[in-house]
Amino acid sequence: MFIAVHEQRHQKNWELIVVSGHEDQQEHEQYALVCAQVSAISVGILNSIDQQCPNSCELTMEDGFVSIHVKESTPLLQSILETFVIQLDTVAQVNSKTIKIEKVEV
Questions:
Q1: Which 8-state DSSP code applies to residue 95?
Q2: Can you give the pLDDT at residue 21?
Q3: From CA 64, how far away is CA 51, in angstroms rounded?
Q4: At CA 83, angle to CA 51 and CA 29, rounded to 5?
Q5: Are 37 and 98 spatial neighbours (Cβ–Cβ below 8 Å)?
Q6: pLDDT > 70 fraction of the chain, expressed in percent and rounded
Q7: Which CATH architecture has domain 3-105?
Q8: Residues 92, 97, 100, 101: is their CA dihedral positive or negative?
Q9: For residues 81 and 56, is the Cβ–Cβ distance under 8 A?
Q10: What are the beta bridge partners of residue 53?
């Protein structure tokens, strides 16, 4: 089991961030803890975008899936997305076998 993170930038601006994967089985407590961390970070970031930058992104959150697709970029939105990426990178550094991050520059 692993969580995949796809991050896409264009001219140094975040355009798309997708997080997918989920582990909810009790027997894999290590993975469940990582999923809880990623879920908490994701919910916080989506709430922040929704409240501080309304209508700037297409936001999707389903079980085991988060997608942020930028429609209208602002410096505040880019700062929020950079914070999201830093938080995911921090979790990935400690859990490199559980989270795989793919960064794409287009």
A1: -
A2: 86
A3: 23
A4: 100
A5: no
A6: 90
A7: 2-Layer Sandwich (3.30)
A8: positive
A9: no
A10: none
pLDDT tens digits, residue range 2-28? 688 999 999 889 999 999 986 655 556
- What whole-number distance in Å separates Cα of residue 60 and Cα of residue 67? 5
| Structure-model confidence comparison of residues 49 and 22, the more confident one | 49
**Residues composing the chain:** 106
- Which CA distances in Å does 22 have to 5, 7, 31, 49? 12, 18, 8, 23
Cβ proximity of 97 and 2 under 8 Å:
yes
Residues 6+ apart with CB under 8 A from 33: none
Which structure tokens are listed for 101?
Answer: 């991050």
pLDDT (tens digit, 9 = 90+) per residue, 51-90?
999 999 999 999 889 999 999 999 999 999 999 999 999 9
